[in-house]
Every structure is written in C-alpha cells, then in structure tokens.
Known about the structure:
mainly alpha, two-stranded parallel sheet, 28 helices, membrane
Amino acid sequence: MSSISFHDRVRESNGEYQVAAVRRRPGVFFSLLWKDARLAAPMWTVAMLGTAGLFLLAAMLRWYLGEWVVERSAFSALWVLLPNLIALGLPAALISGENDDRTLDWLRTIPISHRIVVASKMLISLAAWLTVLVWTSLWFAISHAVFVFRDTPIITTDEIAPLIGYGLALLGCGLIAAWWVRRPIVAILVTAAMIVAVSVFANLGVRWMLVGDAFSKYPIPDPTTGQLMAIYIIAALTYATMVGICTLLGRRRFTGATDESSPQWLLSLSISRLTHGFPSGRSLASFPTNARPTARKALLWQQTRQTGWVMILAAIVCVAVCGTWLTTEDSEARGYSAGLALPAAQLLLGLMVFSGDRRHSRWLFLGERGISSNLIWWTRLRPILAVSLSISLLFALTLMITRTTSERLDPNLPDALSYMVIIAMFTLVMFMGTCLGQWFTRLPIAIFASPILVVLWFYLALWLLQSLPERTVIVWLIPSVAVFAYSTWRLTPRILEGQRGVVVWGRGLSHAAIAMGVLFVGSLFQWLITLPPAMPQWRAEMLLTSGPDYGSSEFGEMRESLDIKDSIIWWERPIVPLSRVDVAELQNKLSKELDEQNEIGRHIAMEQVVTLLLYDDDSQDANRFPESVDRNTIEQMQLESIEIALKWANAIRYEASWRHSSLYQLLEVAEPLERFAVQALTNFAFRHDYEHHPTGEQTTVEPTKQAKRFANLVRQIPSSERRRRSRRQSLIHEYQQFHQQLQWDHPSKVHRSLPFFAGFSIVTRLDPLGFDRIRAVRHLDIAVRLTLRSLERGLPRWSTAEHEELIEAWRKVFPGGRSARIGGLTGEEFPVFTINSEEEISELRNIAGTLLGND
C-alpha cells in the first residue's frame, strides 16, 4: 500500500515533476524491530556512555596517580563485566517495557505470529550485546595501549572466546527468564541462578570430556581438535535449545489474556470505596464505619503487597551475611558479604520504593484522586525504611557480638561509633537507590545504572571521609542522608504531575551535589581545626643540618665498599623449619658469612639467622633440629648466628651514621637483629648460669673459652651512644630526603609520586588537592621533633606518658592510624625507641665484665 505526501501533490500540481514520489510502508517485522530498538535504546545508551566514562576514569586515575590505585586487572574486569551486565539486564528491560507501555496487550489484538515477536527481541538483544562488546573491547584496547602497558598483548583468542560463549549463554538465560517471569527484578535473579547452574554443568561436562572424571581435581589438559569440535557442537546445540525454549515461553506469554497484575485493581478498589462509595448492591450503611480503610492504610497495605517479596529477599540476604560473620573467620568471605551483599540489598530496597507506581502508571491515578503527595511519599517509604533500618541494626548487632567474643578486639567507644557509621552508610545507600528509582522511568535501566552511579558517588565521598576521624564521620554522614531524603520528598510531587527527563534529573543531580558538598565542607572544616601549627624555622634548621664525621675508628674496621644484600631485608618472612635443614650446609653458610668482608647477606638469608637466634629446645617439632644434632653443635651455630647478627647490625649502623643509610634499613634490619641477639645472649647466659657462676657450667670441653666468646660477643653490641647517633643521623637524613622528594613532586606537576617516609606512604593515594599532604607533613615535623628530643634528653620507658605521646604523634603521620606501622620487629611502633632494651644490654655488659675479670 502506498501513500503520496502533501508536498509531492503540490509539486505535481505546479508541474515540477510528473511522477509522484512513492514510499512503501515498512513491514511488520521491521516495525517490531524498530519498536524493540527504541525500548532498548535507553539501556544501550547508558551502557555505551558508561563504558566510555569508566574506562576514561580508570585510565586517567592510573595516569595521574600511578598503578597502585588502578591495577591492570581493573581494565580487564571492566572489559568482562560491562557486556555481561547488558546481557543480564537487557532482556528484562525489553519484555518488562512491554508491560509498562501496554504494548504487549496491543500486540495481542494484531494478527501476527508470536515467533516474529520473539525473533525481534532476540535479534535486538543480540545486536545490542554485540555492539557493547565491540565498543568495550575498543575502549579496552585504547586504554590498554595508551595509558597502561604498551608492549604487552591486549586481547587473545583464549580470552575472547570464553567471553563470547559466556555472554551468549547469559543472554539466552536472560531471555528465558524474562519470558517466564513478569517482574524484571525477579527475572534478573532467576537469570543469575540459571547462569550459575549452566556454568557448573558446562565445567563438569568439559572436565568429563577431557579428563574422564567430572569431579577430578587434576588440571584440565589442552583439548584435541576432535574434542574441541565436540565442545563447539554441544555449545551450538545448547544455544539452539535456548532459542526453542524462548519460542515456547514467548508463545505461552503472548497467547495470555493480559499482563495486568492484581495490586493495581486492589488499590483502585480501596481508593474507590473512599471517594465514590462502595459498589452498588450494598449500601454504605451496611458496612460499619471502622471497616472502611483510610487512605494511609490502603497505601501502606498496597506498598507492602507489591514490595513484600523484595523485603523478604533482603531479610534473607541479611540473615545469610550475619550467619557468615558468626560462623566463619575468613576475612575474604566477610568482606564480600558485608561490602557487596548488604549494600546491594539496600540499593535494591531503595529502587523498589516507587517502582510499583512506575510499573503500573499510578502517578496520575493517585494525583487525580486528591491524595497528598506527602502521604504518598511517606507510605511508599515507610515499609522499606523500616526493613532497611532493621537490616542495618541486625548487622551492627552481629558485628558487636563478633568483636565482643573475639580475643583480639575489645569493645570500646570507637567501635560503638563505627556501628552508627555502618547504619548511616547503609541508610544512605537505600535513599540513593530511592532517588535513582525516581530518576529512571524504567526499573531495569535503574538496576543497571544505579550501581555505577552509587559507586562513583561513594568513590568521591569515601575520599573525603577517609581523612576524618572515626568519631566525626557520623556527624557529616547524617546531613547527607537528610539531603537525599529531602530529594525524594521534593521529587515526589513533580513525578505525580507527570514530569520526567531533565527536570527530574537536574534536580536530583543538584541534590546529590549538595550532599557531596556537605561532606566536602565537613572534611575541609575538620582539616582546618585539626591542622597542626607549622614550624618553618625548625624545618629550615633541620634541612640545613649536616651529618657529623664520626670517623671509621668509632665503628671499627669497615670497608667503604660495603654492599648490603636484599636477602637481609626482613619482610616478616616465615621461620625456616629446622627439621628439614641440612646442618652441614648451614654451618658452611655461617662460616662463609663470618669471613665475608665486602658484602653482608651474601651467603645466608636473614630468616635463617633469626631462626637460629630464636631457637629453643621447647619449640615445636618443625622448628627443632633433628635428634642426631648434639647440643654443642647447636650452641656453636647459635653463637655464630649472634656474631653475624651483630656484624650486620654494626654495618647498618655504620652506614646510618657514616654512609647515610636509610631509616628503613635501620628499623627493619639493625634494630630487630640487635634485639634478637640480645635475647639470644640473655638465654645463653641464663642457660649456663653465668650470672651466678662466672666460670660457666662444666658441661663442655672448654667452658672458659666459651665464656670468653660469650663476653666478646657482648662487647660487639653497639654502645648506647653509637645507637643514639645512628638513630638520630638516619632520622635526620630520611627527613631531608623526604623534603627533597616533595620539592621534586611539586603540586603543580600533573603526575606526582606518593611521598614516602622510611618506605611507607604518609598520605592517601587519592589526594589531588594536597590537603592530606599538608597535614601529614606538619604531623611529621612534630613526630620527628619529639623523637629527636627523646634521643637527646634520654629514651622513655615503655608505657609511660612520654612513650605514649611519641606513639600517638607517629600514628597521626601515617594513614590507617593504629594499623600503620614501620619498624615492625623493633619491639616498638614507628621510630620510637625505649630504654628497656638499654637495661637488658647493661645487664649483659655486667655479666661479660665479670667473666673477663674472673678470667
């Protein structure tokens, strides 16, 4: 059938041309494709723009802040995740969109086959998923080649083939679930369960084909050509089966009477009884007055009916998370459950607050009946808010029980405040979901876009909150929750009027910006009131201080070409199991290391030396020598390990005072080695009773020679003045190097490295404005000044007020507070030194003096 436009008729009457333009109408299948494409366009657009935005954000953060913030795996995760999200949410959006627009009821009145409708949705879903996959791969290749690793391969066949296969299976499961279940959220949950089942059966089937045992734990070998063809044929048959199931379910769904659900009619009946009386046949007088529900009760009842399954699902998730925290101590399982499952449940609760009214187009229906927008807002929010708060309180109670029963954590005031922070954070996520549910007209699009927007908002919010003390975070979180609650209240009457698009988006984004502004003002205010005073004069004096020339005689015979190997740097390595150690080889290593002059740590590693220093006859079986090794041999190796430890410690202190070694080497090598050596010498003296019997026990062949060797080892312990000078000089040198790094990494530079002190960063990795850097540098000035003062005036005793003051000063320097440490094996936190070790060394010197005097 053809039609001639008005302009063509005018041109024909004017003699412009004699042949009229003829335009054919599109076919039915093409019209269905166009309609489905318009339904999928919002989610497809969000996916395309979100993909570009996320890849650009990750690439720019990596380029600006370095690979510590955005690792290479983040780009691969985006490349895998984004196309699969489209495959998960697009089928539900397409078919639930038919319910929202009432187009499926309209299609039932047209003489068309259900196969055309199912084929149209399949083709649009496949085309949208393929375009997103190609678009994501393009951005992954660009960001990978330009910003990340230019010389490494980007995408290989072994990576793209499983992604395509998994995406097609996920798309098929999504179409089956969308035709089977009417509610989009339930369809997405069913899709997730189906793809898990398909993945498990596929893995078991492939393992059975290649290994012969589906439950074998052996690695899967590379398939042969025949096995690979068989896997491809089975996959093709599986996809064909999914197409057939979609066709059958589409026929069942398409031939139904209507997709209208009952809650709309139940609500209409309740409201009509209030406004227009009861149906004819019974008079109003026949009903008692208290039997007529009020508008508030009707709205609450209807909201509970339509969102009850979501609230039950959220409660089940909360019970599962709480059970995980109570029954397991796996930090990874606890982190995923509390960091992903509970926020997802809270976000889903928020999205469902107004989803029923969107889905059933009740806004005009409720507005025309004169129901107050405030009443609608409160009755829609009240059941969801009650469940959200109950979930938060239950998890906080579980966390309180876990911390109370733990042996390592005791309940105190900061923990109690952290419970309030958790409740506020979860409530904030719920209100953000409510706002996003009002912004988007379709629920599947809101489900797809809301996690991205919430993560971006919280990414900025946590960057602002991470520098705040735990006691004040709750002060600034509550106003943000109030801002989002106010946003939902202000948007409700506008949505009742039928407004959508930029009007709703603009106001919603402005409210989100206000909430972010509250956090920014709070963090800025907290930064100003907690910023320590500057000490420019003292800092200038310290930067101009030069190290004194102590001379080589102060530290004995040391070669200037001393080389410190990385093998002696202690990174909390495990103790070497002595039951599996070759004693002859260990003795050979000790002898060679004692004879070495130019290098330290060349023949033996630090963990072996520490194992010998800490050896005890009462230790566990794995840390004990075999019974064939006699006691004299063990003591001989212990004395050699003590000599090596003191040799290394003296070398490090020589480098710290003469060669300007780093503070990190002093704290991680010299200090722990001296402490372990002193402990080993103390145990040796106690075992031989040198304090009461200066000549030593008569249990060895040459007790006097052994006692002399013990006394000589004690004399090798650095003096208190030598330790004080090395600590002071290394601390000053590290401070000067730190400020040189700050001068090179000026804030005006685009790419700045993280300022490190003694090998640890003193600021967070996200500090583009430099607020944390300024505060950390001033706290560092105070900590260094206090430490130098304690080194000059005398070291404090453990757990005294001066010692606690030093600990607190260094805690403010490093991010993480109580969890941040340097010098982990020194016995003290941070570069804080006490007089307790000096007293132990003094006792050993008295014993050694007595031994040498008696000799």
